[in-house]
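[stage:ingest] chain + small molecule (cobalt (II) ion)
[stage:ingest] validated
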Amino acid sequence: MEGQEIIQKELESIRKAGKIVANLREYARKIVKKDVPLLEIAEKIEAEIIKQGGKPAFPVNLGINEYAAHYTPSYNDETLASGLIKVDFGVAINGFTADNALSFDLENNETNKKLIKTSEEALKNGIEAAKQNKSLGEIGSSINETAEKANFTTIKNLSGHSIENNNLHAGITIPNYNNGKTTKLDDGIYAIEPFIIPNTATGMVYDGKPSGIYELVRPGNVRDSNARELLNYITETYNTLPFCSRWLVKKFGTRALISLSHLEKAGILHQFSQLIEKSKSVVAQSEHTLIIHQGKVEVVTE
Ligand code: CO
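[stage:predict] done
[stage:export] tokens:
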């Protein structure tokens, strides 16, 4: 569905979610430090979202260097924060998600810092293009041009997206380069998220290992009673928003892992792959969510 109309309740929900995200961005700046376990960072951010009255819209993504997206710590993850780390998280209120990401350089590395700064500028320019009612291709172009000016480039097969109720990646794609699309953004909720890399890199991500991040793809029946119990819990708790094995191990113990693999094999759950830059290049990411209401653009996550 294109051009969804945002009604008052939706506006209130997404603004509230955005406000919590803005607070959490400050919180992340305090706790994301070199050598802190990723598990600790993810759990602290998720707990703080709940404390502030929201729901984590998906597991906190913590991608180090070439890990562009879909890395969340497993329940027994021992990885420590390092390199150029991307913190991508979302807050849901009544199923409406405010999505965002910010990057940190934990190595005091000049290239990392410049990549991060460029991703922030590219995001700013992408938002500006949306405010000027530019087409999808032109928004992408303003993002990519910002990268090229800094002698960097963008990842072409990762993009921003429209957001609908309980649907994080709805129909519309906001490209990070000019893909020739002349469509303009209607009223709705959108995330813009440039991924910036050195211009010597491939500019594409590939599917790495399974991420432990899942989403419900269709209702279904399973005979196994543990798997059935887990599926009921998933449906009630997350609806169609993404969740992770770590959350379920916390609630049900490691037996949840067997049930998850049951449900995945039955085609009821989809498991996302880790997304890794093809030439193993460092990746910086910045993201904000905006709403367009009666043609006016409002950034809700800053
Ligand atoms: Co996003």
